[in-house]
Amino acid sequence: MATMTPVREIQEVTKCPICLEYLTDPVTTHCGHNFCRGCITKYCETWTKGDYDPLCCPRCRALIRKGDLRNNYQPGNILEKIKNWISNKEKRIWIQCRCLLPSVQRNSNRETSGLTGSW
């Protein structure tokens, strides 16, 4: 069995296996799988309306009950930290690019004017 990279592990914990998006209002089944509350609720309702076998986890096929879903705040907390980290990183990159822009423009002007010496 191959080991997952840290990024893959985070994606595994924070993405819903039904909608394949980041978890929204995450809940956990008794078998330990995470889903968006809306996705698993809709899945349970669709399953019970049909003529299917007992309700099963869409991930591992273990028997589940709609009433046994538990709030799971950990994936939501992880997502918040990732979003904040990305936002802060984007801000730092924007500031760095903005700070570098005048020197890039100076170098560009120097090259186009035929000046190649250092400033």
> Helix proportion of residues, in percent?
40-55%
Identify the CATH class: Alpha Beta
Can you tell me the overall shape? elongated
What composes the largest sheet? 3 strands, antiparallel
CATH architecture: 2-Layer Sandwich
What is the multimeric organization of the chains shown? single chain
CATH topology: Herpes Virus-1
How is the largest sheet built, in terms of strand order? 2-1-3
Total of helices = 3
Counting DSSP E segments of at least 2 residues, the number of strands comes to 3
DSSP strand (E) fraction?
A: 5-15%
Unreliable stretches covering 5 or more consecutive residues: 115-119
| Cα separation of the termini | 57 Å
Count of the separate structural domains: 1
The CATH fourth-level homologous superfamily: Zinc/RING finger domain, C3HC4 (zinc finger)
Mean pLDDT score, rounded? 76
Could you characterize the architecture of this molecule?
- This is RING-type domain-containing protein.
- GO terms for molecular function: zinc ion binding.
- Keywords: Metal-binding, Zinc, Zinc-finger.
- InterPro entries: TRIM/RBCC (IPR050143), Znf_RING (IPR001841), Znf_RING/FYVE/PHD (IPR013083), Znf_RING_CS (IPR017907).
- Residues 16-61 form the RING-type domain.
- By secondary structure, the protein is mainly alpha-helical.
- It has a single domain (14-110), classed as Herpes Virus-1 (2-Layer Sandwich).
- The chain contains 3 helices and 3 strands, in the order H-E-E-H-E-H.
- It has helices spanning 6-14, 37-49, 73-113, and strands spanning 26-28, 34-36, 70-71.
- It has a 3-stranded antiparallel beta sheet with strand order 2-1-3.
- The longest helix has 41 residues, at 73-113.
- Mean pLDDT is 76; it is low at 115-119.
